[in-house]
Amino acid sequence: MGEMQPDHGPTSDKWPLWVLLDRQETQSRGWPSVSWKISQISAVKPEDPEAVPLCLQLHRDERIAYRFNLSAQAPTLFVICEEMDAGKLVPRKLSVAQDLAADHLDAGQPVLSIPMPQPVYVWLEQFMAQHGELEDPKAGKRRLRAQASGEMSGGTA
């Protein structure tokens, strides 16, 4: 990723960002426990040398997932990580698609999340406005089933 220039702003579908994680050491029932959290996501390189440059890239075929996230009570930005030796987490990918984050979790990869920063929210809404909404194919089937069950139960008066 040496060619990426995170200090430049976003394009219509790519936003180079810097990600910094924070290692938290605590005691859990008397045992040492390590957890990780997102310390910072920034368009400008932090002074910390541990900051990792990543690109948040949007894909037109994921618009249903984006709308689901944007419509949530708390829209979320996901950081998909790789666990290295000694339990160190390294950020590897950014996403605003909950489906993708869930797939990585199911595969055993650590995924961290934070509330979606307002500039990312606005940028994602612009992407959705530019490319249009996709109809959730499952939503149509649910509507048809609901109509069919309404017709069946609606005939008894």
What's the average pLDDT?
Answer: 85
Helical percentage: 25-40%
Order of helices and strands: EEEHEEHEHH
Termini separation: 67 Å
- What kind of sheet is the major sheet? 3 strands, antiparallel
- General form: globular
Question: What is the rounded Rg?
Answer: 20 Å
Question: Which strands sit side by side, in order, in the main sheet?
Answer: 2-1-3
Number of domains: 1
Percent of residues in β-strands: 25-35%
Give an overview in words:
- This is DUF3305 domain-containing protein.
- InterPro entries: DUF3305.
- It comes from Nitrincola iocasae.
- Pfam families: DUF3305.
- This protein is an alpha+beta fold and 157 residues long.
- The radius of gyration is 20 Å and the shape is globular.
- The protein has one domain.
- The longest helix is centred in the last third of the chain and has 18 residues.
- A 3-stranded antiparallel beta sheet has the order 2-1-3, with no helix packed on it. Strands 5-4-6 form a 3-stranded antiparallel beta sheet, covered by helices on one side.
